[in-house]
Amino acid sequence: MFSSESGIIKDTTVRYLLAAATTLLRTVSSTPRLDAELLLAHELGWSRAHLLAEQAYIPNAHHVVAFHQLIQRRAHGEPVAYLVGYRSFYGLDLLVDPRVLVPRPETELLVELALEFARAQSDVSMVAHAAPAYHIADVGTGSGAIAVALAVHLPNARIYATDISEAALEVARANVERHDVAGQVMLLHGDLLALLPRKVDLLVSNPPYTILAEIDADVREHEPHLALDGGPDGLAVYRRLLAAAPTWLAPGGSILLEIGATQATTVSALAHTMFPLSQVTVHRDLAGHNRILAVRTMAHT
Questions:
Q1: How many domains are there within the chain?
Q2: pLDDT digits (tens, 9 = 90+) for 25-40
Q3: 69 & 163 share domain
Q4: pLDDT tens for each residue of 77-97
Q5: pTM here?
Q6: I need a labelling partner for 153 at 20 to 30 A (CA). Which of 29, 59, 221, 284 fits?
């Protein structure tokens, strides 16, 4: 990739390295140029903006070799987020590695809706002179992306972030500490809602909802199956979570679940079964796909 027939690298400017890497990644990535820029900026310890302003810069041999290795790993399907060790999510840099799923942009819609729900319900509570604390459960927290984003934007929220994977919770703990929200986020190792200390006003989750055999091979090979595998039909966790939710949801509480693009009808039916008097709606992501299922329960049951 970066060598000539003589074994001598004739051009190692930033411009050339990016062009060569982009060409190599074009067949394996939908964003080859962006991947190359992020990986070279990471290797040089620069911002992406700095990199783009220094097209004529010639990195030293150590950086060139290290960049080449990163590009080869990306060409074999490793996510850029794992290679650089972080992912931007809802304006926050989150630490990620193979112990957790890489946070996706579409999950930001869940955060946006959760903030809307929480602020609306908190306003009602303040008018009624209720306690200002707002209690949220983030089920299957993984890297802690949702919990940390909500804590940063809801200073009065108390968030219980659960995960069945101890390894994932180690990553979540690092992100909680990184963004200074340890006073708001309680990390709980256990299955679904079993360890919650109290009823919650809002339940959010991006559960495993894929059928492993049907997902992209690179995702299946590199990201944790525990965070991906939704069972034979992709609905196993929804069934269990929605069945348990009535016990743990406070009167007037809400549920927000990320869903697969083809799962809206089935998961809506499950929600209606468990919450027959509630309002169930589906929200689309920026690509127009069904993405978030919302359940608003009645204030008194």
A1: 2
A2: 999 999 999 999 999 9
A3: no
A4: 999 999 999 999 999 999 999
A5: 0.89
A6: 284
